[in-house]
């Protein structure tokens, strides 16, 4: 536990150093106000005296920023008895602890150690302010002028539904969910890259090491594809456009305020008929046996959602359309959520009305601009290709 806290605090120190360095760069602009920095030796005495207040203000700003990052670090989650024995998410085991799931194992075998911090928010307003303190601004991300920090929120703030400002509520939801979607896509992208590399070697007649053969076989099983069906596997190991995931999560969870989101950390309303943890809907029909699948971490729910779209037979049309888009665009950057959602009419009983709702959410909230979002390098990890 101590090592996990130390790594988390170390990440925030790196983030603080990154922003301080960026603050003093000649290209830095905050709140759309251009600013420049200068060297003291370039100033005469008169200009220097006139500039003292600005220097003091800037020093105070830096001090507040460092204090702010300290406050965010204070929210870092660690496993304690009063949290009901909740352990770290398997998908973020590289951040918080030992890996014990197939998802985490795949990262370990890939030799990738994603870094970041897991936080538990005190309230929606506090989380909103914490995001602002560390320089996480959606307007910057949309313009390509800012990156997304590796901050993974464990659970939605319990009071998010009580936030009076719709804009603030939406911002908290999007800022919370975007790193989770990017993290899930990061893993899918890494798995896909390794599958391509190994199968290319096989096609050339090159022998794979036993560990490589074992890993590749595990992926066929993990994504429900017949052994050696390379094309079928690549259809299923692919990313989900962030705009699509954000819009579906917003619709299914009421922008993070639903009972399933707050109690089950489930943002996509996925049903389960198994003995896995879940919540019984209040209005479930008599005789029905399904539950809404619940999770230990929001990130687990996002991964499950992606896995559902990537493997369930009902979404074969979605996967085929995504593959055609990828081929036409020469990569995943050409994936259009507006077109892809048309292949998800079966996702909801509302059918075509559901598709139009998702399109509206994407358009009204300018979510397609977030499809270009990338993780910040400040906390290390793998930079998406």
Describe this structure in words.
- This protein has 385 residues and is mainly alpha-helical.
- Helices cover 52% and strands 4% of the residues.
- The protein contains 15 helices and seven strands.
- A three-stranded antiparallel beta sheet has the order 5-7-6. A two-stranded antiparallel ribbon has the order 1-2.
- A hairpin with a 2-residue loop joins strand 1 and strand 2.
- The longest helix has 38 residues, at 166-203.
Secondary structure elements and their pairing?
Layout (H helix, E strand, L loop, with lengths): L1 H22 L5 E2 L2 E2 L10 H30 L18 H4 L5 H8 L7 E3 L4 H10 L4 H6 L7 E3 L12 H38 L6 H13 L7 H7 L5 H12 L5 H6 L6 E2 L5 E2 L11 E3 L4 H14 L4 H14 L7 H4 L11 H13 L21
Parallel strand pairs: 3-4
Antiparallel strand pairs: 1-2, 5-7, 6-7
Attribute tags:
three-stranded antiparallel beta sheet, 385 residues, disordered C terminus, mainly alpha, globular
Helical stretch tally? 15
User: Could you estimate the helical fraction of the residues in percent?
Assistant: 40-55%
Could you list the spans in which at least 5 consecutive residues all have pLDDT below 50?
4-52, 68-114, 380-385
In N-to-C order, the SSE pattern is HEEHHHEHHEHHHHHEEEHHHH
SS elements, strand count: 7
Taken from the alpha-carbon principal axes, the silhouette is: globular
Strand order of the largest sheet: 5-7-6
Mean pLDDT: 75
> How big a fraction of the residues is strand?
under 5%
* Alpha-carbon distance between the two ends: 32 Å
Radius of gyration: 23 Å
> What is the oligomer described by this structure?
single chain
The biggest sheet, with number of strands, parallel, antiparallel or mixed sense and barrel status, is:
3 strands, antiparallel
Structural class: mainly alpha
């Amino acid at each position: 536990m101590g090592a996990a806290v130390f790594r988390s605090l170390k990440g925030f120190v790196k983030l603080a150093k990154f922003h301080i360095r960026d603050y003093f760069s000649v290209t830095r602009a905050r709140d759309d106000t251009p600013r420049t920095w200068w060297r003291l030796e370039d100033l005469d005495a008169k200009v220097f005296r006139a500039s003292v207040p600005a220097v003091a203000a800037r020093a105070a700003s830096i001090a507040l920023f460092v204090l702010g990052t300290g406050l965010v670090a204070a929210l870092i989650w660690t496993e304690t008895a009063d949290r009901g024995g909740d352990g770290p998410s398997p998908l973020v085991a590289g951040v918080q602890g030992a890996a014990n799931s197939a998802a985490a194992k795949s990262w370990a075998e890939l030799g990738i150690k994603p870094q970041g911090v897991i936080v538990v928010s005190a309230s929606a307003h506090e989380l909103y302010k914490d995001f602002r303190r560390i320089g996480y601004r959606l307007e910057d991300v949309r313009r390509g002028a800012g990156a997304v920090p590796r901050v993974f929120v464990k659970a939605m703030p319990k009071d998010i539904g009580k936030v009076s400002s719709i804009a603030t509520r939406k911002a908290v939801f999007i800022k919370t969910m975007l790193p989770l979607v990017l993290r899930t896509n990061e893993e899918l992208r890494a798995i896909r890259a390794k599958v391509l590399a190994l199968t290319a070697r096989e096609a050339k007649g090159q022998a794979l090491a036993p560990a490589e053969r074992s890993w590749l076989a595990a992926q066929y099983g993990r994504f429900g594809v017949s052994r050696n069906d390379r094309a079928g596997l690549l259809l299923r190991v692919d990313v989900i456009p962030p705009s699509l995931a954000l819009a579906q999560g917003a619709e299914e969870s009421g922008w993070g305020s639903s009972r399933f989101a707050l109690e089950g950390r489930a943002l996509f309303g996925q049903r389960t008929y198994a003995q896995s943890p879940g919540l019984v809907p209040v209005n479930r029909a008599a005789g029905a046996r399904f539950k809404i699948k619940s999770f230990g971490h929001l990130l687990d729910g996002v991964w499950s959602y992606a896995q559902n779209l990537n493997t369930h037979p009902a979404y074969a049309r979605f996967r085929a359309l995504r593959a055609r888009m990828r081929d036409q665009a020469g990569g995943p950057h050409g994936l259009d959520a507006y077109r892809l959602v048309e292949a998800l009419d079966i996702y909801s009983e509302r059918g075509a009305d559901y598709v139009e709702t998702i399109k509206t959410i994407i358009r009204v909230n300018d979510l397609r601009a977030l499809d270009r979002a990338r993780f910040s390098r400040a906390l290390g990890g793998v930079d998406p290709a």
